[in-house]
């Protein structure tokens, strides 16, 4: 069984705060309003996104620009302005990542500084996508190929060392911008969780290794699930493989 993208996970010093922000921006609801005993919070999509967003309690400070950020789409200039205003009202802020004064997209940060972009209307690349248009990643062409094979998602862009994939069922694109990209320093604050049937987990891990992934041993906590296996893609970005089913206690 090919692994399925189950979640995008954020390290969060205040998971409830971040979940509230992103719930307000995306319109997604928490899976358990009462909260998880670990302090983690999960948001469930209300569209064709196909994966959850999970905020994992972490004491680690954000020190560098994230390797993954959201690109949110707009239907008009007024719609773009409404999204920006809503994000600012919820606790977001403008962020300078070198975009320059002529940029048509707006770069913002959530309450813990995680960057995201509100894309101007008329973007042809994201025209067929919903409000959450893309997960834009800093990474190589090889890692785009890896994730295409790992998830069984077709390449929808492959030019000038830039790649993008998209689920056959729709939802956001996942893009990798190619070189130049920043050297990885420390654990990423955002990572993928992929899920597979429990009785196929080891076989799937072996397949992912054959595609270029490595198994991480002695890793700091990436997930609160037991039986999850920490791995790294060919660019060294952490992800983890979990048995499908409800979250398990530590």
From TrEMBL:
Domain VOC: 128-244
InterPro entries membership: Glyas_Bleomycin-R_OHBP_Dase, Glyoxalase_6, VOC_core
Superkingdom of this protein's organism: Bacteria
PANTHER family registered for this protein in UniProt: CONSERVED PROTEIN (PTHR35908:SF1), HYPOTHETICAL FUSION PROTEIN (PTHR35908)
The protein's name in its UniProt record: VOC family protein
